Amino acid sequence: MEKRPNWTSKYAFIVTAIGSAVGLGNIWRFPYIMGQNGGAIFLIVYILLISTICFIPLMNELYIGKLTKKECVGAYESINRNFKYLGALNPITGILIASFYFIVGGWIINYIFKSFFINKIQNYGQYFSDFIQNPVYPCILTLLFLFICIFYTAKGVTKGIERVNKILMPLFAIILIFLVIISLRLPNANLGLEYMFKPDFSKLNTHMILAALGQAFFTLSIGMGALLTYGSYIKEDKSLVRSVYTIILSDTTFALLAGIMIFPAVFAFGLEPNSGAGLVFVTIPKIFSQIPHGNIISFAFFILLFCAAVTSGISILEAPCATFIERFKTSRIKACCIIFGMVSIIAIPATLSFGVLGDLKVFGKTIFDFLDFLTSNIMLPMNTLFLCLISGWYLKIKGKNILNNKIMAFLFDTGLKYIVPIALICLIFMGLN
Ligand code: PFF
Fold first, then answer.
1. Residue 78: enclosing H or E segment and its boundaries?
2. Domain limits at 287?
3. Is 320 in the pocket of ligand 1 (CB under 6 A)?
4. Which of 51, 177, 306, 411 keeps 20 to 30 A from 396, CA to CA?
5. For residue 69, is it left (φ>0), alpha (ψ between -120 and 50) or beta?
6. Does the Cβ of 21 fall within 6 Å of ligand 1?
7. How far is the CA of 24 from the centre of ligand 1 (A)?
8. According to the model, what pLDDT value does residue 99 have?
9. Structural domain total, the chain
10. What is the pLDDT of residues 227-236, one digit of tens each?
11. Could you report the per-residue pLDDT of 375-394, keeping only the tens digit for each?
């Protein structure tokens, strides 16, 4: 079994944690959820929530990892032996998330190559639906994407995970800024900015507030032990507060830039901002086909998505991987092979659920939709709820030991014990309805 690793520097930890947070959630999910929930007003609520309520569970998860220095099951077990079953829900959630997240990773690989022929496609909606219904290519690409992520996870924390993040995150930032500039120079770009920044208060409602909260938790990677595991690799003397602020600020900035890249382009071409999950795979390629050098820009865009998906994908795999290594005393390579097998077994039917297995329903949903629903709406908030309750009520963690500001410490304690659990219970109920 490998020796427990540590991040080589504080920068390495922060870049990797940002790499986990910034993913498909920012570039694929955030713009379309915002598009479906009224634009600017959603953004205001989202920023309010992510900078206040979300600070607490994010801090808590990293803190428990750093405190216990164990993977998820061991961390919960070291608090109370019986909690280990709750801890085990984290790597299980990770394997289930991987099984649908990596399918989108596979689609991205297809679009990277397709970029060169982007203007040859006649009907973008038709192309996308034909592609995802194909019984062969999407499966191969899902496995390819999984293989890429597991390969770097297998290389280890410093040589694999850290290194990939240190290369891909700056590349991601450069491509994103380049694409934002191109988008802002399109005619009528101001309509997109207006949509993003001019709020219509009549669109404010509870459903939208909870959607913003759910999106904030998902994008910060809270609730499946990825951050707990990353936190467990932090050296003793490092303070967490600044890191947590940096993660939240960077994640929000990247989500905003993704919006600024996408909405002006959508409005410039008179398209609908609320086209849902197809926004990135149907609306955006359509735009690329109509602008000069569209295939190069499309290539850059999907490479951007690829970088974001790989760094988050690796973090999704690291939590179950660390659990296998430490619980079953296996080598990292063996753990990665087992996880590859487990994710594949669930991901293949999920990939096929867009086509040949489309009629197979779990609680009235296709396999892909069910995995997305189960993890994003139920398991992530539930795991976060358990961890907040354990820290607030059982461990009685005190804000004053983590934060050096009295008011912040008070808000942290109240949030951990009452506000965040209540918000999470509402989120779970909304998910169930
Ligand atoms: N935060 C990632 C994103 O925004 O795409 C998704 C994610 C990664 C969720 C890791 C949960 C997780 F543990």
1. helix 72-79
2. 10-386
3. no
4. 51
5. left
6. yes
7. 8
8. 95
9. 1
10. 999 999 998 7
11. 988 999 999 999 999 999 99
